[in-house]
């Protein structure tokens, strides 16, 4: 079965600094990959999804971007963080006929 | 945008069945209903999914109404570890199979 790795687990960054969060997937190939954000006490917000290398769809216009340089690698980036970027960032993948989503452990980002 | 409606919170006594409702009145004929749960500070965990028929696995049962406009997730014997936020999601089969999570139902299992 697939395993999703995310790092770092926690991150504290000042406003205006850059961001790079990495997600890698093991145990499967050609997965659909997703980035979600969860603000404190809120539901999950879909940010980006990717159906293949170099293919990124954005759900919410903002100062974040995503890239998929390899089949099982998904990166979330920002050039300049805002306070509102604080939250719990989750990477997920879907694979197989039933397309259930599997989630990574998440990265808790605090922008100060 | 999420296409489901769930109660904000529910309580359930330990050992009793927890019945979590979900309304998805605009569901299309080829869309599946998925249930996930999220324990505090963890990533969501897949529970079960279905299209038309009722489904059961080791975690839960999913009852879908005949018109498919609503469903109920049943945890047959709730334990304290079942305390979590439960999300009901309708999956779009088009363009990347996006999953849209709403705010879910916060279930508290009471000793």
Task: Explain this structure.
Chain A starts with a strand and ends with a strand. The model of chain A has no long low-confidence stretch (mean pLDDT 91). Helices cover 0% and strands 59% of the residues of chain A. In chain A, the strands form two sheets. In chain A, strands 2, 4, 5, 6, 9, 10 and 11 form a seven-stranded mixed beta sheet that branches. Chain A has 112 residues and is an all-beta fold. Chain B has 111 residues and is mainly β. Helices cover 0% and strands 45% of the residues of chain B. Chain B contains no helices and nine strands. Chain B has strands spanning 9-13, 18-23, 32-38, 45-50, 55-56, 61-64, 70-75, 84-91, 105-110. In chain B, the strands form two sheets. In chain B, strands 1-9-8-3-4 form a five-stranded mixed beta sheet, with no helix packed on it. The N and C termini of chain B lie far apart (36 Å). The model of chain B has no long low-confidence stretch (mean pLDDT 90). Classes of the chains: A mainly beta (112), B mainly beta (111).
């Amino acid at each position: 079965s697939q395993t999703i790795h995310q790092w770092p687990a926690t991150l504290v960054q000042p406003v205006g600094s850059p961001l790079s969060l990495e997600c890698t997937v093991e145990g499967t190939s050609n997965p659909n990959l997703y980035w979600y954000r969860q603000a404190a006490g809120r539901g999950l917000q879909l940010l980006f999804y990717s159906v293949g290398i170099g293919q990124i769809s954005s759900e919410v216009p903002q100062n974040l971007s995503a890239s998929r340089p390899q089949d099982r690698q998904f990166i979330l980036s920002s050039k300049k963080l805002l306070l509102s970027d604080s939250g719990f960032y989750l990477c997920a993948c879907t694979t197989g006929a039933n397309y259930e989503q599997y989630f990574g452990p998440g990265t808790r980002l605090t922008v100060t | 945008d999420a296409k489901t409606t769930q109660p904000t919170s529910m309580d359930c006594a330990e050992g009793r069945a927890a019945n979590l409702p979900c309304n998805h009145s605009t569901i299309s004929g080829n869309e599946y209903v998925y249930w996930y749960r999220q324990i505090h500070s963890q990533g969501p965990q897949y529970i079960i999914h279905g299209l038309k028929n009722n489904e059961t696995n080791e975690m839960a049962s999913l009852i879908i109404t005949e018109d498919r406009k609503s469903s109920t997730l049943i945890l047959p014997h709730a334990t304290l570890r079942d305390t979590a936020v439960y999300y009901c999601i309708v999956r779009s089969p088009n363009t990347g199979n996006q999953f849209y999570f709403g705010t879910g139902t916060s279930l508290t299992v009471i000793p």
